[in-house]
Design a protein that fits this description.
A: 367 residues, alpha+beta, 2 domains, 43% helix, B: 134 residues, mainly alpha, 81% helix
């Protein structure tokens, strides 16, 4: 038998071709669209432009958008692989390059596939806090998201007639392959099944009732995760000389405890997609600003006694400082905060990324 | 319409390239490897393995088993891919309480067992009602 490289016409399985790839492409496009939109939201909250605002209600809003971000990314992994399988014969199309537009198109597809794999794989590694690369993940993941989305739009523009044809043409179902191999329908069902399994295996990181089913959830089945330990942040337990500074006022821990307390069930929702619902008790930031004589609804700089780190100091926008559920929490689930959860007090605001829920708060300053 | 979509795409692409520039200058090799690695590994390794796997299944397995085993292999491969960031942790920081501390290997084995029980059930029930080849 003579061995030669495959040609486009060698691939005879019904799992290739526009009718499969247009359908899977549609699902993949939806997954990418959700992922991109929710990613922009999360980026906007963490690096707000002057025109950007993010509501503090419903309290679970960020938990949902970020859960969708990570879940749609996970769902896109089997979809991307199935999509590539459906068009794999095209890789062997001859001639390799027909014209300059054809060369540009092939080039744009290479960019699209490279950027797509980059986003999905760095995303799932980052969820596991595993960083087998030298670059700073948020910057690279954000920039490549624009490249992936841009090259996807270019690809859709080029293929629009083929997509329309494949999705609207009325066809009779092909006979099942007599070999017993996967039919087109079987391939689509298998892809759907793989998406379902991938989602089930991971989504319990944020969906409580799937917590035990999701074998690859990033958080434990019980308890409230701790992302940064006091030891890692260089924080030691505060003594009786500790004071919280709010503008010109200083509050001791006993003074904070003596103020009217609010108890609220609020999620802590990580950018990495996990979330946990906790019952927090503490003083509304709104009340503290009022006692310090600071204008209600001010944008506030929240500082921590952490020695360093990216999130030592965060900005709390006016929408959140005026919300009575934005708390400087002293207790969680009925017990005093432990040092690793932010003792003596931590910020907990509704609908905010976990990295901005500053622990070991030492100062609130109006910006 | 096509021209509008294409033009918007090019603008986003260009914006992404501008945003990526600092990363390119800072760690070109690591970034380049991750950007090019996906398509290369897919086209040269993953897709050929899937293709050869399909041919082997068609030659070795009895007809009723071919589709369920193929689907089972696909789902198993996805589970393995999702488990890698948890099982190969050479580049992760120290574990903190409540995060990344599940028995991931056991979880993978249980999930694979469930998948293959389903494959077995489907294969056994297909045996009777698959039409004979013409």
């Amino acid at each position: 038998m003579k061995v030669r490289p495959p040609e486009e016409t060698d691939f005879k399985s019904p799992t290739h071709g526009p009718r499969v790839s247009a359908r899977i492409g549609l699902w993949l496009g939806i997954a990418f669209g959700l992922c991109f939109a929710t990613g922009l939201i999360s980026h906007g909250i963490q690096h707000p432009a002057a025109w950007f605002t993010w509501p503090s209600r419903p309290v679970n809003l960020y938990r949902i958008t970020q859960g969708i971000h990570v879940t749609s990314g996970v769902a896109a992994i089997p979809l991307l692989l199935a999509k590539l399988w459906s068009v794999y014969p095209k890789l062997f199309g001859k001639p390799l390059v027909k014209s300059i537009p054809h060369a540009l198109e092939r080039g744009s597809i290479f960019v699209l596939i490279g950027a797509s794999f980059f986003e999905l794989l760095t995303g799932v590694f980052n969820v596991a806090q595993n960083y087998p690369w030298a670059f700073f993940f948020p910057t690279a993941h954000y920039a490549v998201a624009w490249i992936a989305t841009g090259s996807l739009l270019v690809h859709i523009a080029v293929k629009l007639p083929v997509i329309r044809e494949a999705l609207t043409r009325k066809t009779t179902e092909d006979p099942k392959p007599t070999t017993g191999a996967l039919s087109r329908r079987g391939f689509l069902l298998t892809t759907g099944g793989a998406v379902g399994v991938a989602v089930l295996a991971t989504v319990g990181g944020t969906v409580p009732w799937l917590r035990t089913v999701s074998v690859f959830a990033s958080r434990s089945a019980t308890g409230v995760p701790i992302n940064r330990l006091a030891a890692a942040a260089g924080v030691t337990a505060a003594d009786s000389s500790w004071r919280l500074t709010v503008g010109d006022r200083r509050f001791s821990l006993d003074e904070l405890r003596a103020m009217p307390q609010t108890t609220a069930e609020l999620p802590i929702a990580c950018v990495e997609g996990w979330s946990a619902t906790v019952t927090w008790t503490g003083v509304p930031v709104k009340d503290l600003l009022e006692r310090a004589g600071l204008p209600a609804g001010s944008e506030v700089q929240v500082e921590s006694s952490e020695k360093g780190g990216l999130y030592r100091s965060t900005t709390l926008p006016g929408t959140h400082t005026s919300d009575p559920l934005t708390l400087l929490a002293l207790r969680m689930n009925g017990e005093e905060l432990t040092l690793d959860h932010g003792y003596p007090c931590r910020l907990i605001a509704p609908s905010r990324p976990g990295v901005l829920q500053t622990k070991w708060v030492s100062r609130l300053e109006v910006r | 319409m096509r021209w509008v979509i294409g033009a918007v795409g090019l603008v986003l692409l260009g914006w992404g390239a501008v945003e990526l520039l600092p990363v390119v200058l800072d760690s070109p090799l690591s970034l380049g490897g991750w950007l090019v690695g996906g398509p290369v590994v897919h086209d040269a390794l993953i897709a050929p393995v899937v293709g050869v796997g399909g041919v082997v299944i068609a030659r070795v397995l009895p007809k009723p088993w071919r589709a369920p085993v193929g689907a089972g292999l696909v789902v198993s491969a996805i589970l393995v891919v999702l488990s890698i960031p948890y099982l190969w942790r050479s580049f992760s920081g120290p574990l903190t309480p409540g995060l990344h501390d599940r028995p991931y290997l056991l979880g993978l084995l249980v999930a694979l067992a469930v998948v293959w029980v389903v494959v077995a059930i489907v294969g056994l029930t297909r045996r009777e009602n698959t039409p004979a080849a013409p």
